[in-house]
Automatic annotation (TrEMBL):
GO function term, MF aspect, one: acyl-CoA dehydrogenase activity
Entry keyword annotation includes Translocase: no
Family: Belongs to the acyl-CoA dehydrogenase family.
Domain Acyl-CoA dehydrogenase/oxidase C-terminal: 288-408
Protein name: Acyl-CoA dehydrogenase
Record keywords: FAD, Flavoprotein, Oxidoreductase
Stretches assigned to the Acyl-CoA dehydrogenase/oxidase N-terminal domain: 6-118
Source organism (scientific name): Actinacidiphila oryziradicis
Coiled-coil portions: none
Length: 432
């Protein structure tokens, strides 16, 4: 794919790359992830204030920059290049689009300007694998009205799925008494950015097990009964948390009337906003953003490796002059460019309101990053295996993202199911 970006888009990339080059080197990354917040708060304020990064894809009427998913994906490529630890992904990619799509006008006007300015960060809490919840590895949600049968959320496949946890004895439950606020009970693990988020979007069951539906709720980060703990993660640059909700007050995303309708026994009479289509598009944006991050990280890892093999000498000549090394690096370059094309295509696809190319782009990008990072460690020799060197950061990012959003074979199977490649072959892989 030959992506021709506008001058404005190129300026976004250039400005962000220069800032991160100055303030987010490997040493700064290692120092930032070991703070209580898990990221450099001063740098985040710079990204959120003058650059408006968290509000890049939000409409101007809500304090955003008015750009689209393409610009946000390009920004994510630069943050991935620096392995930037920040609340950008959970806030701008996961939470903000859902609030914009499903929130009431009052909710949007109260929350989105604060998100766009960086005054508040947000996180999406779902008690199931994030890749499944976003429809990247399997259709998710309960668009048909129950937690046991999912609707047509991400490509027309109809298989069982449950993105708010087990409806009978686990997951997160929402209870509502007349005249009282909604209350949430349960637990969610691996919530990206959840330990510091000022706002949580929580997926919870309403209506009990027999009539269960899944809706999103807004929970204030300081709400009573909310217990949060940062988890030890393989990739420290992408902080994760365990969220426990113990009789926590919550506000339904979309308004009280929508949640009341969702709990009604007559599922087909419910007139509340179905989170399915919005979650599918959010999943597509997330896939494109993570793919772009992986491409940026792989590009930087390859550039660092090239510089090393040019300078490192063995047998009186640079290591990079050996034919075997040249071939390995050439293969990595071709793989990286292919992944970059799929990531850009996924970003443009999302910009057009479609959600079909994300899983494949993500699978290709994560595979490319893992290959580049692995070769970077090998070609750096003994120094690449030490914790003091930064090569391991890229490898851990690749492995961690595949665990969070993959695995790769499930992403590819999902893409094949969306494209209905095997529909007429009788292989039973349509909804894989």
């Amino acid at each position: 794919m030959d992506a021709a970006f506008t001058d404005e888009q190129q300026e976004i990339r250039r400005t962000l790359r220069e800032l991160l080059r100055k303030r987010c080197g490997p040493d700064e990354v290692k120092a930032a992830v070991r703070t209580a917040a898990g990221y450099d708060e001063a740098l985040w304020r710079s990204l959120a204030g003058p650059l408006g990064l968290p509000g890049m894809a939000l409409p101007a009427e809500y304090g955003g920059a008015g750009f689209g998913p393409t610009e946000l994906v390009l920004a994510c490529e630069e943050t991935g290049r620096a392995l930037l630890p920040s609340p950008l992904f959970p806030t701008a990619v996961l939470a903000a689009p859902l609030i914009e799509a499903l929130g009431t006008d009052a909710q949007r006007r109260a929350l989105l300007p604060r998100i766009a300015s960086g005054a508040v960060t947000a996180a999406l809490a779902v008690p199931c694998p994030l890749g499944a919840a976003l429809g990247l590895t399997a259709p998710s949600g309960d668009g048909a009205g129950g937690d046991r049968v999912s609707g047509d959320w991400a490509g027309g496949d109809r298989v069982s799925g449950d993105w708010a946890g087990d409806g009978r004895a686990g997951g997160i439950q929402a209870r509502h008494a007349p005249g009282a606020p909604w209350r949430l009970y349960g637990e969610a693990g691996q919530v990206l950015g959840g330990h510091t988020a000022g706002l949580l979007l929580v997926a919870a069951h309403t209506g009990g097990y027999a009539r269960s539906r899944i809706r999103l709720f807004l929970v204030d980060g300081g709400a009573p009964g909310l217990v949060r703990a940062r988890l030890t993660a393989l990739d420290e640059t992408r902080a994760q948390a365990r969220i426990q909700l113990r009789d926590v007050p919550a506000e339904p995303l979309g308004g009280v009337e929508a949640a009341d309708a969702a709990a009604d026994v007559a599922a087909d009479a419910a007139d509340g906003p179905d989170p399915g289509p919005a979650l599918a598009l959010t999943g597509a944006l997330a896939a494109a953003a993570i793919a772009a991050e992986a491409v940026g990280a792989a590009d930087q890892a390859l550039a660092t490796t090239l510089a090393y093999v040019r300078a490192r000498e063995q047998f009186g000549r640079p290591v990079g002059s050996f034919q075997a090394v040249k071939h390995r690096l050439a293969d990595l370059y071709v793989r990286l460019q292919a992944a970059r094309s799929t990531a850009y295509y996924a970003g443009c696809d999302t910009d057009d309101g479609r959600a079909v190319s994300g899983p494949l782009a993500l699978a290709e990008a994560l595979a490319a990053l893992r290959a580049v990072a692995g070769e970077a460690i090998q070609l750096h020799g003994g120094v690449g295996f030490t914790w003091e060197h930064h090569a391991h950061l890229y490898f851990k990012r690749a492995v961690s993202d595949e665990l969070l959003f993959g695995p790769g074979y499930a992403l590819r199977a999902r893409a094949a199911g969306q494209a209905r490649l095997f529909e007429n072959l009788g292989l039973g892989l349509v909804a894989a």
